[in-house]
Amino acid sequence: MLKFKGLISFSLFVLCFVHLASAQVKDTLLKPIDTIKTTPIRVVRIDSPKKTIDTTKAKYVNPGKVAARKAVLKSLIIPGWGQLYNNQLLNEKLNAKGEKTGHFWQKTYTLSKVGIIYAGFTLLTLSYIDNDKGYKTFLKEAQFRALNKGQTENKSLDRYDDTNVLNNLAIFKRNRQIVIFSYFAVYAVNVVDAYVAARLNYFNIDDSLSMKITPSLMSNPNSMYGFNATPALKVSLRF
């Protein structure tokens, strides 16, 4: 009897152990695998597409700026060269329009500026030579009188006293400085004129551009004597 009870107890123990083992196996089979912890995440970099340059579209070049730059450079090297370059541009522009012999006065005006520039330099040079000669004459006389009281070296300057000699010396010296400044002024005007003329050669003026000035009336609510209209001029621009 005791053996029979022990056999039954052993059988129950084995059944419980088998049942626990099978439950453990099912639990491990049904449990999902955590792929986030086990598998590292790879970051994929998506490069933006490179911008392609449209080579078919040509870059705009302002011909007026190019011509003005060349005219200024030529005028800086040799005064008047920029004006000759502008005359060449004018000839090419007229030839392109089929006007080979037109605009005589416009060409003459362009070339005459070269003569004016060199005429100005010539007059300034003559003025500088004259003032420099006078300055040296009075300087020599002033130095002689400073060393020899009451005596005169140049007999043609006897009519001048010591004060007048010094005053004339200062005048001739100032005139020389003014002439030198005028040289730079004429040179600068030569450059500016070449630049402006080169830009105007490419300034578009055609029949579609017009200006009209007509008389008109303008309302004036603050007018005295009860008049609400004021005479005026109306300017109309058409492009």
From TrEMBL:
One Pfam family hit: DUF5683
Q: Where is the DUF5683 domain?
A: 67-239
UniProt keyword list: Signal
- Identification of the protein by name: DUF5683 domain-containing protein
Top-level taxon of origin: Bacteria
Q: Which residues form the signal peptide?
A: 1-23
